[in-house]
Write a structure and sequence with these properties.
alpha+beta; 6-stranded mixed beta sheet; two-stranded antiparallel ribbon; 3 helices; 8 strands; NUDIX hydrolase; metal-binding; hydrolase; metal ion binding
Length: 142
């Protein structure tokens, strides 16, 4: 079902297309960088995310977000997959990002947690089911 104008002259349809969002599972110096958004409760960590901007490729977007949110320079990104997040009407385009540098947080991120590869498989993402799905997909296919 879509909202549409009933006028024969108008023919407007509200398509309600999903919003593209990039997500990055960032690894720097051999450890994965999980981030806690400044608006989240303590102990809740996930991937970094950001909206795809006009004219930007998903790969460029996640490298930009890596630098903006973590202060790290991404030099390689590998596609993990795309995932629907219907409750926010978003299409998540996930990447594994290899980065270098020193973490320098922006105002969006309250803190980070660094985890080794073997810790990532058992990390408790709590209610963030999509994060767990993305990470599991990466670990299974990497």
């Amino acid at each position: 079902m879509r909202l549409a104008c009933s006028s024969q002259q108008c023919k407007f349809v509200h398509w309600n297309n999903p919003i593209p969002v990039v997500a990055g599972l960032v690894r720097c110096n051999g450890q994965y960088v999980l981030a806690r958004n400044a608006s989240w409760p303590p102990g809740m960590f996930s991937l970094i995310t950001g909206f795809l901007e006009h004219g930007e490729s998903p790969e460029s977007a996640i490298l930009r977000e890596t630098e903006e949110e973590l202060g790290l320079t991404g030099h390689e990104c590998k596609f993990i997959g795309h995932f629907a997040l219907p409750e926010f009407n978003q299409l998540i385009i996930a990447f594994a990002v290899e980065a270098y540098g020193h973490v320098k947080l922006n105002e969006e991120i309250a803190e980070v947690q660094l985890v080794a590869h073997d810790q990532l498989a058992t990390f408790d993402f709590g209610c963030l089911e999509l994060t767990n799905t993305v990470v599991s997909h990466w670990l299974k296919n990497a």
